[in-house]
Amino acid sequence: MAEFLTDIKTLRARARENIEQGPITDAYGADRDRVIQVLNEALATELVCILRYKRHYFTANGVQSPAIADEFLVHANEESAHADKIAERIVQLGGEPDFAPATLLERSHAGYDESTELQAMVRANLVAERIAVESYRQMIALIGDKDPTTRRMLEEILADEEEHADELKDWLGH
Ligand SMILES: [Fe+2]
Ligand SMILES: [Fe+2]
User: Fold this and answer.
1) How far is the CA of 54 from the centre of ligand 1 (A)?
2) How does pLDDT run along the chain (174 residues), one tens digit per residue?
C-alpha cells in the first residue's frame, strides 16, 4: 500500500501546477494527441452513420416497411448521442472536435449508402455496425488502462453498437 498514493502535500502541489489543463493531470497516462486523433475518427464515423441512417429512415419510411424505418431512426438518434459524447470528451482532453463536412467520409471508418431496397439498407447498416464494433474494440485495446474515462465511454458505445448489429441481424431476410 505504501506506493499507492503520493503523499498529500505532493498531490496538492501537483494539482496546482498546469491548472489551465483542467481535468488533465500528470497522472494522465495515455498519448493525448493519439487519443484525440482516434476519437476524431470515431466522431467522423458516428456522423456518417447518422447521415446514412437518416437517409434510410426517410427513404424507407412509407415505402414498404415503417417498422424497419423506425429502427433506422432509433439508431440515427443513438449515433447522434455517441457523437455528442465523443465531441465532449475531445474537448475535455484539450482537443478540437472535427465536424468538417468536406473530409467527413474519408475520415470515417464506415461508409455512406444510398440503397433503395430495404434488404440492401439493412445489409449496409449491418456492415457499418460491424466496422464500428471492430474499431471500438481496437480503440479500447489501444487505451488499455491509461485513460479510464475515455475507455468507459468507448465501452458503453461499443455495447450499443453490438446491440445495433444484433438488431439488424434479426432484420436480415425479413
Ligand atoms: Fe455509434
Ligand atoms: Fe450503431
Assistant:
1) 13
2) 456 778 889 888 988 998 988 888 888 888 999 999 999 999 999 999 999 999 999 999 766 667 899 999 999 999 999 999 999 999 999 999 999 999 999 999 999 999 999 999 999 999 999 999 999 999 999 999 999 999 999 999 999 999 999 999 999 977
Torsion of CA 97, 101, 103, 109, to 10 degrees: 70
CA distance 68 to 64: 9
Residues with CB under 5 A from ligand 2 (ion): 129, 161, 164
Expressed in angstroms and rounded, the spacing between residue 133 Cα and the centre of ligand 2 is 8
Ligand nearest to the CA of 164: 2
Rounded to two decimals, the pTM is 0.92
